C-alpha cells in the first residue's frame, strides 16, 4: 500500500476489504482538501497575475476531485449518507437541523411526529452490509 | 410534515420513539437481502421508477420517416402493512412502562421484511421483479438429503462462481430449513455450519424468506436493491381506544449478473 494510505491503525489482516477501501477514499479526500488549502494560500502569496489564475484553476479541479470522492464515500457509508442528507444543501441553522433530526420537527411532547432516525421520516434502516 | 402524517397521530414523542425503535430492531434482525446485495437509495417517496437504459421500438410510427422508441423503466413497488396499537399501551409508555405491548409493530415489521426478501430471493412477477432463484436458476445445485453433504455443495457453488469469472467475497443466504439443520448438525463433533463458514469469506445470513439457500458474490455490481422510501411508519386513523398506523416502503430489485449466484434448491423444487 502507498505510504499515504499506509497509516492503518489496526492489523490489515483483521480489516475487511470494504474498510480498507473506505480508508483509501478518506485519505484521498484529506489530500484533496489539504491541496485546496495550500492553493488558497499560494494564490494569496503569488505576485504574478497569470500564476494566480493557474493556481486558482488547479485548486478548483481539486474541489471537483474532493466532491467526487466524497460522493463515493457517501454511497458506501449508509450513516454518512444519512447525515449528509440531513445537513447538506439546507439553509437553516445547522444546530436547529440537528435538534429537529433528533427530537422531531415541532419538539412538542404530543403529536410532534416522534424522533426519527432519518430526516426523510424513515426508520433509517439502509444497507445492512458490513 | 410529510405524507406519513405522523404529526396527526395522538402519540407522544416518547411513544413514537419506542414504536420506531421496535420496528427498526425487528427489521434489522429479519432483513437478509440487505446484508448481501447492493443498496441504492433511499431515493425518496416521489421516485416512481428506475431507468433500465433500454428502449423499445414503437409501432405504428407517429409519422412517416419518424422512428419512435419508448424508454424502458422498472417501476418501484409500494408495500404497506397497516397495524393497530392500543392507546392504553401508548399512554403507559408516557408513565415509564418499559414493557408496552408492541406486538403489532413487530408483526408488521416481520411481514415487511419477509415481503422485501421474498421479492429479492423468489421474485415478484406482478411487480416485474425477477428474484435471484429464478434469474440464476441455470446454475442451481440440488441440496443433499443429509446435512453432512452441505460443505461439498457449498464448495461446488463457489467453484462454479470462480469458474464463471465471478470473484468473492462469497456469502450465503440460508432459508429456515437449511439454517436450522446446519446449526443443529455436527460432523465428527464439529458443527457443520462451521465447515460451511470456512469455505466462505463473506457472511452466513439467516434468510426466512428464502426457500433453500443461495451462494452469492458480494463483489458488488451484481444485485441491486433500489429503495425509494425506506421503511417508514405513518398514521392512518384513530379512535378513543386505538391508533391505526402503517409500515411502508417503496423498492424494486434487479439481478444484473445472473452468473454471480448459485441457488441451492430442494430436490422437489428442482424438477
List the helices and strands and how they pair.
The complex is a heterodimer of chains A (130) and B (271).
Chain A: H1 17-45, H2 49-75, H3 78-87, H4 94-103
Helix pairs in contact in A: 1-2
Chain B: H1 13-30, E1 38-40, E2 49-57, E3 69-75, E4 77-86, H2 87-94, H3 103-121, H4 132-135, E5 141-142, H5 150-163, E6 170-174, H6 176-184, E7 186-187, E8 190-191, H7 192-199, E9 204-206, E10 213-217, E11 223-227, E12 232-238, E13 242-255, E14 261-265, H8 267-270
Parallel strand pairs in B: 1-11, 5-14, 6-9
Antiparallel strand pairs in B: 2-3, 4-13, 6-10, 7-8, 10-14, 11-13, 12-13
Helix pairs in contact in B: 1-3, 5-7
Structure description:
The complex is a heterodimer of chains A (130) and B (271). With 130 residues, chain A is mainly alpha-helical. Chain A is built from four helices and no strands. Chain B is of the alpha+beta class and 271 residues long. Chain B is flat, with a radius of gyration of 22 Å. The longest helix of chain B is centred in the middle third of the chain and has 19 residues, at 103-121. Chain A binds chain B through residues 17, 78, 103-106, 108-118, 120-130, and chain B through 1-2, 4, 6-17, 19-20, 23-24, 27-28, 31, 34-36, 38-39, 42, 44-45, 169, 203, 218, 229-234.
Which terms would index this structure?
heterodimer; A: 130 residues; mainly alpha; 4 helices; 0% strand; B: 271 residues; alpha+beta; five-stranded mixed beta sheet; 8 helices; 14 strands; 31% helix; 29% strand
- Mind summarizing the main beta sheet of chain B? 5 strands, mixed
Distance between the termini of chain B: 52 Å
Q: Total helix count of chain B? A: 8
Q: Name the beta content range of chain A.
A: under 5%
Radius of gyration of chain A: 20 Å
Average pLDDT over all residues of chain A: 84
Q: What is the end-to-end distance of chain A? A: 22 Å
Task: Note the overall shape of chain B.
Answer: flat
Low-confidence stretches of chain A: 105-112
Q: Identify the overall geometry of chain A.
A: flat
Instruction: Calculate the mean pLDDT score of chain B and round it.
Output: 92
Q: How many E strands of chain A? A: 0
Quaternary class: heterodimer
pLDDT below 50 for ≥5 consecutive residues: which ranges of chain B?
Answer: none
Alpha-carbon Rg of chain B, integer: 22 Å
Instruction: Summarize the largest interface: chains and residue counts.
Output: A-B, 28 and 39 residues
Tell me the number of strands of chain B. 14
